[in-house]
Structure prediction request, 155 residues.
Amino acid sequence: MKSLSMLLEWIRPAGIVLVYFLSQSLGTDAVSTFHILGPFIVMIMSGTVAFESLFLGSAASAKIGYKPDRAYQVQSGLNHLATAVTALLVYLLAWGPYADAAVAIVMLAAFTFSAANHLATAIREHNMKPVNLMRPLMTLLLLGVLLPPMIKALQ
Prediction:
């Protein structure tokens, strides 16, 4: 379980890079590019976090340096699963650029708040585990990848 949890830390950025290149090659304009980029990144990020929370709880807590709290992890995992499923519906049903943006904003807000929490625990509790320290940085990169194409698609 521990190795699978660590593997997810590599699957997420690899999936984002793959989706980014697919969106650039398959998208014909800003809207179609973001229709690929937004929902698929949400599915990757929220979907893998949901899987990790629901099935790899102890390993996920250990790698971040948090105490395991199964009830909270299940609740959080179900929330991420709901976001990922919504992104899938938004993509499959082609609800338009505003729906693509809305589901991306929900995910970005959740990860931004989570990154702030990781940074706070790093400072307050001296939790210097690499995965804990990388969450704020990776969230900034995620914002940088998604916000410019989303703004362009909504113009």
About this structure: The radius of gyration is 16 Å. Residues 38 and 104 are 6 Å apart (CA to CA).
